[in-house]
């Protein structure tokens, strides 16, 4: 049976997920789209013959729509996710689950009250081959207990609307989710160290930033904001290489390319992630990151943003995971 999917938000990643579902993956089909702007849905309707809505709630309540994908900006995730839960329909929402921990908790509570696992959050790094290989090596125990994680990110550029807190909410949020999953641990405290800023930044962005997370088992994580990851364990080191590109030899130089576009870097992970969601949502299950994972990420992000201005080590207090989310 084909899962009939409605997509709310037809911007950059919304369009990419629609292409992915209709042209690459199997078992699902986008049959309806909604956006507050008319241009996005119109272009998609012309290409795929889908129904269009101005209002996400109308799309969710369309009886022909079996499952929902939310790709609006983060501040507009909460309402459609809650509406999908109320309608009893599976919902895949892009990260973040919502922009505040209080909103995320509201979603967690609504899902628990409904008694059905319906929400998956788009933390696609858990589906990335490299991260899964590192996790398998750590889980094998061959390298001993993880002690320190070094993670680095080099963004070629961001535009002037990108501000200091966005380095956490938009960028490090992926690391926040994937790293505790990688080492099977929970965060306890957050700290941000601000070195002198580069001349290439603007007045509202402190860049670079060094984020330090400490886990309950005492592992120290240092994020020079993301993508590559090296785990120092007591008996060895596990380092994830950058995806391979051809090495060229010319004019006395050996050169290799660097992937600077996140869409290409994680293209396989997005495909595997959404295929898994289509397969599991069709069976009334959720395999991927849950609403509780979205809440944990939001609590951690809030502590990091607080640490950006306080300069102090901020505690992270999430409370016990509800039994509902125990795997
Ligand atoms: P975008 O700004 O390109 O597109 C957002 C679309 O949502 C626009 O077409 C806008 O008109 C529409 N929209 C806004 N409010 C709406 C509402 N209330 N109802 C219906 N439509 C509404 O944004 P982009 O880059 O596509 O990002 C969307 C989400 O995806 C964000 O949460 C972002 O963090 C996430 N994202 C995740 C990535 C990942 O690696 N997993 C990568 C890029 C984005």
TrEMBL record:
* EC code(s) of this entry: 1.1.1.18, 1.1.1.369
Domain of life per record: Bacteria
Q: Where is the Gfo/Idh/MocA-like oxidoreductase C-terminal domain?
A: 135-312
Q: Which reaction does it catalyse?
A: myo-inositol + NAD(+) = scyllo-inosose + NADH + H(+); 1D-chiro-inositol + NAD(+) = scyllo-inosine + NADH + H(+)
Identify a single GO molecular function assigned to this protein.
inositol 2-dehydrogenase (NAD+) activity
Its family? Belongs to the Gfo/Idh/MocA family.
Q: What is this protein called?
A: Inositol 2-dehydrogenase/D-chiro-inositol 3-dehydrogenase
Gene source species:
Clostridium algifaecis
Q: What is the lineage of its organism?
A: Bacteria, Bacillati, Bacillota, Clostridia, Eubacteriales
